[in-house]
């Protein structure tokens, strides 16, 4: 059956009054949390993950899709109105969006971000429906050595590309892989790193890890740099776009989508590079065309990067569904949600549970549409949420984070784990360690161990089996070239003096 016929069948299953209600609730909750300062989409999804517990799988995924896109849209709102990106991929949106807002064009900036997100998300989801089954059919024939090599590629590339320091990225990855070892050995049944604590014999719940690192760590970090000064929020009128703004945005929307999807679909991709490329491209194309120059609030500088960001967010479903490899922090949390329902993404998923997969893809289309319909008129209301005093705001985040951690297993021990991972998240932010490599290490570590043991078992312990397949050799060559290029590329060093780091972070928090 054709992919689009399967997608239509998923839409038919998803479009029911009950599921549409769950999608609307997910969009509103995701935007509500995502619009708050300092909270990116990954943190919003991690914080709201327990809300979907208790629902059957289809309804849960539909609500989750709404939360996902709502969190993405909320991040662009804080970038435009407060110049406070919730994630690194929103930095380019903040450059021109906040300047547009200061020039009295906040409504137009929010409108082009919302419409661009809808267009890029829709096109990206349709491309996922086309590429994911094809990749899954090829991935079925991939052996354990090649699968292990691909996961090594995802981890190494993420650890070395994210952040300003290769060493810090690798340290964060090592910490994540170590956390992933906690629990019983799958082959021998011996406890590892449990320190005699019975609750640690089971593998750590990724939800507790993610909420602790993202939500609790961020709340503690902001509290440590808190000043009792009100946030300066730019007033927002009714979001709208005139014909001139629409003409200037259509090209950047499409070009941004073309940049974003391939980077999201490649393991170890991400949205930072395509958003930067989109911004640079639009800046070059805008020369001599009139309108506001870049650096003073050019609408093209919002439309292109925002489309690239959302197209990349859609593209990340290709490796996640077909290979079981998350390439972003948000994808890591969503992978944990799938595993919570006993679903293991990978080559067999598209055939063994095809109905659920196509319903999930259809849910993304529904959530994306509802995001545009509901949130565009509600933009002024979301802007008012930014006036919540930060002490009350982060106290609420701490409360819901603890409630979500307790709800996973109804065990107070998980709340203690949450606090431990929250302190770890605070320490990582203090010393400039990126969070994404740690989360990927926790999730992919056990999978890598399984594939490694499978490859060595087949070869009776011969390590040369790891390079016995042509694809594995190609992947290792790509890893070596990428590391070499990363080491040769000159980048300005990040400030390492503690006082300088504190001053910079305090300025960012209090913008």
Automatic annotation (TrEMBL):
Asked if Membrane is a keyword of the record, the answer is: yes
Q: Which InterPro entries match?
A: DUF112_TM (IPR002823)
Record keywords: Membrane, Transmembrane, Transmembrane helix
What is the official name of this protein in its record?
Tripartite tricarboxylate transporter permease
Tell me one Pfam family matched here.
TctA
Tell me which residues make up the DUF112 domain. 20-440
Query: Where are the bilayer-spanning segments?
Result: 20-49, 109-132, 144-162, 169-186, 206-224, 321-344, 356-379, 391-409, 415-444, 465-488
